[in-house]
Amino acid sequence: MRSKTLYHILYYRIMKNGKLNHLFSLSTRMSRIALDILFPPLCAQCEVYLDSGVEPICKPCYQAIIKNSALICPICTARIANNKRTCNHSEKLSAQFPYLLGAAAQYSDPIVRSCIHQCKYEKVHALTKTLSLLLITYAQGLDPQPRIFTTNPIIVPIPLHTSKEHTRGFNQSAYIAQAFAHAMHFPYDELLVKCINNDPQAKEKTHAERFARMHGAFAIPRPDAVRNKNIILIDDVSTSGATLSEAARTLKRAGAKQILALVIAKA
Ligand SMILES: [Zn+2]
Ligand SMILES: [Zn+2]
After folding, report:
1. Where are the bilayer-spanning segments (predicted)?
2. What is the pLDDT, as a whole number, of residue 1?
3. pTM of the model
């Protein structure tokens, strides 16, 4: 565990516990003061001292992230103008990707990659705040705004398998999706469950192998909540698109109408 991230881990825990009683209760405030003295708040990226200690990364680090500004085709990553696909893919391929994709940044961006990694594997949950802000700012800046935004779409996170969520302690995509739904005033609902614990295998190199592994990975316990609904799927990273594709196809089979997938980063 790196010391620069200790502050954010402890701060997150204190605030989370504090929220159960009173957000600014005396014990919460005292804990924060003690925390600031014991573990000075440092940027989770460059380790500069943070004045407020509330944001997990400093302003210059956040500003240095190269942000995207358009939706993309999930098949060829071509920019989509006016929220309509213009590239000509085969019917079979189009059916495999029944959604438009939005990515706030690229996974190759070192700050984005490090934030996602620390959030997922080093338990710096406070970084979901930075990642959510990135996604909300991206969505609100899309010009023109996707038409789906005017249809009160349901925000649905990509779920983890229960045993994986138990090991990791939380699902970062669900945190980001909740913050996104709150900021955009859209309903949030965990409509998908992961019924197969299928971690990516290093030996799976091809597109077809990755897609085959995801086959049947998701279930929808309440199909009535999906039928005729527009849905925005939220995940942290999209690599081959196999996860989003399987989730979107599962929702389509249950009668979902339009699907937009939004991720923090496209790899
Ligand atoms: Zn920094
Ligand atoms: Zn395309």
Report:
1. none
2. 46
3. 0.87
